[in-house]
Protein 1
Amino acid sequence: MLRTTAKLLAVLNSETEPGQIGLGFALAMIAGFTPLLSLHNLVVLLLVLILRVNLSAFLLGLAFFSALAFALDPLFHRVGLAALTARPLKGLWTALYNSTLWRIEHFNNSIVMGSLLVSLLLFVPLYRLSNTLIRLYRERALAYVRRSRIMQAFTATRLYQYYQTYSDWRG
Amino acid sequence: MTRTGWIRWPGLLAFVAIVLLVAGFWFLLLDSLVKRFIERSGTSLVGAKVELDKAALSLNPLGLTLVRLQVTDPDAPMRNAVEIGRIAMTMDGLNLLRRKAIVEEMTLDGVRFGTPRTRSGAIRKRPLEPKPEPRSGDVIALPTLSVPDPKEVLEREELQSVKLVETMRTELAADRERWQKRVAELPDKQKLEQYKAELDRVQKTAKGGGKDVLSGVLGGAQAAQQAVALQKDAARDLDAIRAAKADLEQRLAQWRGRLEKARTAPEDDVRRLKAKYGLSGAGATNVTRLLFGAKLADVVDGLVRWEARLRPILQRVAEHRREAGAREAGAREAGAEVVKPIRGKGVDVRFPERLPLPDLLVRKAHASVELVAGTLKGQIRNITPDQHILGMPLTFDFAGEKLTQARAVTVAGTINRVNPAKPADHVAVTARDYALGATELLNSKDWAFHLERARVDADGTLTLEGGAIQGRVNAGFKDAMLKTSAPAGVVADALAGTLADVRAFQLHAEVKGTTADYAVTLASNLDDVVKDAITRRLGAQLVRFENELQAAITQKVSGPLQELQKSVGGLDTLTNELTARLNLGQDLLKPVKSAVPGLKLPF
């Protein structure tokens, strides 16, 4: 059980570059803000698995942004409704509405549209911010965390040792 | 080992594996999800539990089978409003991906109404809908079914004839006084005699002549002038008398007319009291309303209540347009329509479609409905809450032949919400030889009527348009058995016995008004049957009652009536007086003779 858990943790934490972690967070924001069973989240899932994205960051971010979405739903609704009822875009929406693929996507729902627009708008800023914060953490805080008693106790556990072994094998 | 590049190809396998896992999981759970969805949305719509035993989805061909759907009656939580044994449908897959549930054909087997439930279907404590208050005109007066003592009746009742005669006496007395005064003010016989005497004197003076011709002519002219002046005065007075006589004669004619009415007033009193205290036509008509009025009103009330319950399903657009705000109104101006889904967050904005279709549509449903009388089979077409998109109303028609309790039954109609501002629903029902079982028609404090059995041929229609309701039923009952429980009394026993002897009768009912306030009009040859039978059985008593009443009223009224007649005669006397005066004054107006024979006066 411990070995399996360690293997899983190793896989999840295999990509540790700041960009990979940041991308994980950014993609998690799209999946977390928008309704989970939307069609575009298949694309997000594909990107998460096929690109070298930190899976732990994605899962953690998904939980965080899903919780945040409950509070932001009224904002998403207003943004989505404004976009869907904008006169200049009526032609575009009408064309999409008559397409089966886009109807499956349910783009004409105010929450779906609003949450997707907001998450796409915040994608790049969140990616850059995550990068910056991770680098700062590694430069300034990581050494302190490693020296803390909790971390020292954790690194002494067998789980961590197995994790470290599998991590080294993966390179 | 170092890894370079951003692509993780094994991730593709992981993606496929996850998708297949989720799809498989979803497919396994789909039946339960569909079942839960139907139960939850149905319960929310109906306001009482909607339960489904099983849902089974098939992918090839795409279809859904539902087993034992129970819809609780919100007014009677231990009964189902409708229970359907099996529902099977085939669906259009492509439209389903476009979030449109288009069912090409649906089969409903074993549709039953009012089935008992094993446990309550109430979802929360809610007050039962109050029974509608009796509408104006619906408070049916029970006919008084005992023949009272005419003396007691007269003590209790105010006679209109006596009141009328008394009023006339007072008015006539005042009128007589007024006319006597007026006649007294007119020139009387004495005055007219004076005119006559004066005229004679003037004429004599003129004949007497002068010493010579000239003085004779001058004297004659003067006399003639005086005579003319006298005649003018007399004519004026006679005109006044003539006018007064004309007025008086007119007034007298009016009084004679009123006197005639006063003479027939006792008969009106007899008729009124007979209707109130005996069984007249109006009282007998009440029997039909007693027997069938409440039952018919219950049926109509039930249909109106269910129309109100089904309205949110039949007419989604109007409901949700009302909930939309200014923003949504702006969207409508832009050519889009905002529709709030029945459940879920956010709103869906609907855009113009190349091939518009409702979100939910059942094109054709074949149903078999199990009634007590037997099974009806038929079709319902175009079931959708968005008729304005489809452009066609919901229609249904059911028929059954050689049923267990009827020779034939047909039910057909339309529910039209194509124009949501002008809803129009229509249903027509026919039944031939329908065997009615024991039915309670009325159960009040004093009376109870039961139709133990009957075979009915009936045709009925009901239309709801806007808020207006209009309906008609023609029914012929045969092999009928009516049982009555009535208070003790000769007439009540007669009524009970009469109804027990009735085997066949016709009934015609009309409903008209608004859904909040409608009137039920009933007519039946049962009224004539009851009236004739009771008249036969109680003929002698009713005739005696009428005669005694007539005699008592006549006795009360005859004295005042005679006095009234005398008073009218008094006015007649005044007329004669005026006539005599006119006759007297007739001679006064004859042309005056010239004093000089052969001389024609220029005036």
Protein 2
Amino acid sequence: MVNDANAQKRNKVFDRLKMLLIVVAIVFIFYAGIKILEYLSDSNQKLLSAIFAILWGVGAVSFFYFGANWIVEHLSSKWTSRIQPYIFVGPAILILIWALALPTVRTFIYSLKDADAKNWIGLTEMTEKVTSESLIPVFQQMTNGFWVLMVALLILGLVLLFKAIRRRKHQEAHSETAEKKPLISTKGLIWILALGIILLLVLIVPVIQAIIEVARTVDVKDMILLENYRFAFTDSQMLIVFRNNVLWVLIGTFFSVALGLVIAVLADRSRYEKIYKAIIFTPMAISFVGAGVIWKFIYNYKGQGNETGLLNAIIIAFGGQPQAWLQIPFWNNIFLIVIMVWLQTGYCMVILSSAIKGISSELLEAARIDGANEFQIFFQVIIPVIRGSITAVTTTVVIFSLKTFDIVRTMTGGQYGTNVIANEFFNQRFLYFDKGRASAIAIVLLIMVLPVMIMNLRQFNERKAF
Amino acid sequence: MTAKSGSYKKKRRTSAFWVNFVLILICAIFIIPILGIFITSFRQSEKIFNSGWWTFFPHKEWSEVGEYVLDPSVDVNGEITVTTDSGETFSGDFAYWKNGVMTKDNLRYQYYGAKRTRTLKISEQHWTGFETGLTLDNYRNVLSGKKITYRGEDGGLLTRNGSDLSNSFINSFAVTIPATIIPILIAAFAAYGFAWLNFKGRKVMFAMVVALLVVPLQIAIVPVLQDFTKVNLNGTFLGIWLAHTGFGLPLAIYLLFNYISEIPRDILESAFIDGASNYTIFTRLILPLSIPAIASFGIFQFLWVWNDYLVALVVLGGGNNEVVTQTLANMVGTKGQDWHLLTAGAFISMIVPMIVFFSLQRYFVRGMMAGSVKG
């Protein structure tokens, strides 16, 4: 028996040692890996660095999970069931908070600060005004006697509280009944409330008066806390940006979804469906930058010699004049939107195609027997039935078009009136180095996608028992 | 069921014809841009600058067969009369001859250059064959990092540094593969935790995941970049892996959660009864069962990271760690002198995603359908 107990104790010690070892190993692996990566990149060994990075990255993360779980599972079972979920979920949540959740708050704060994200715009001046001109005089007016009374009351309150706690402890130790009397009797509570209200009135009211006084004297225009937002919403350049984004959202989404729907419906009736869908789908694999390059060869304008852009060549073949398409005001946006439609139609098509295949053939058969022609079937049967999918697809494409950056940046750099909000964010942050304005623009972007976020959250809430 | 009459069959056939016709038209429009790039990338640089890529195909072209010099007595500012070899006589002013005049031999007489050249060029049309002289030079030049030479628009020889796309290519792999695998690992653990483990704050945390699905990148970039600069991670691979992991986690967790939560409970319960711990169940049971969902997200993430430009631009910056999208975008920026390289570069950048995409298309589609709530 004694040997068993000793053996158990020894096992426990070994376990503790192993746990320590694992923690040390995890830290060591992470740290060593970073150092090795640094060394490899400094000595410019590209391939070696890449391979090591892949192995280390995957290996270190796997070992972390393995080790952490080993430790948790060798604790007492009460602790295991309490802690283990957090080992599973923890890293993900922590990374999410650092990468997305916190930055949202921080970006919002930056949007209220100036270009270097150091000083609050406007607020320092306002707080100075409030404190130096109004608050301090108010407090100076209060006599010393007043302050003595305040302190006395505070001490009295604390003493009473202590007494009540001691009484309560005494009761618990000696009382046999399970009935718990409240810590402070109702009478006592009323006294405290009354005192509190009086204090509030005496102290807070002057402060509020001071703030109102300041607010009355300060001109709203001087309150430049929201200066960055004023820029974001009223600057003439930003108005062009908003106009362009509206174009992108409306035209881009409509044509992507409509085209995807039409192709899905048509392909469904054809024998070579798979081939068509594969071809339409292909552009999805291309990067935006690559798409920009491809379409640059279509929109190209030389102005002399032979035109090398396909669009200009077609125009010439029909007897027209070649143009610099991407520089035509207003219409150049449309030409850029065409690129996005080219890329996004495949996505819409795939989703809508599977939705269409889900429509019961009896429904279509019945409509045909009733004498409806194909157009009527399309508009009055198909579209209403797959309305859910259309909405889902439209939302996704809307958000996608709001975030357009690569296309505009590589094709026109936002010039010639093609600027969009994501590009303007980039310019403000990395060209003009104005963190405040960039953050305000990012927040505006966030506000634009807020409806979708709320919709998602609401859907999540209605889910099965979570 | 009505008997299929002859006119019904005919109607079916014509409608089938129109359906396929429209589809072929649309597909052609979709494919042509890519075809253009593909052909251009093999042409010689001089020809790229001087003619459209469609001239690759056989077409009718004008070529010079002779010259006609105007008599010194002819006044070029007035009426110019010329008798051609075919015996016809044409009369007109400078603009008339500038347009070109066709004779019945199908020869064209056209004023060459300004008035003072006093020369008419005689040309005729003929079919050319496919363009010859296709070359892999563009590919070679765009991949190399050393000095390259090529012919410019006027035929002169130009020398420059190569675009070093091969370096960017390796960088893209180094960035994309970890940025795909690591989020999958982390998200799989988290998804299992959300789906099958009970703990405090579970609903709130998952609500956060759902909310973060649509948060735009731009929100996160400024603070994240500041953090990186503080710990000297900006411009490194580790930094961009962390960034892509963070940005890809919401969708990953969401997708994997949807899939894992639908694994039948009895499988898990019998494993529990057999004494397996959560970790063993996860590694031996859940992970293998979730391979379809993992593959879906994996491809999605791979394509997204490979084709990404904004995060790479912000976190990696320029320099030695550039990825393919950055190098390509830089090449677009120059005033068009690099177009021959651009086409080859674009194609190289497209090859990898295309291969991944086509070979694993089924999984990709499934991932897209599930992810259609994301922005």
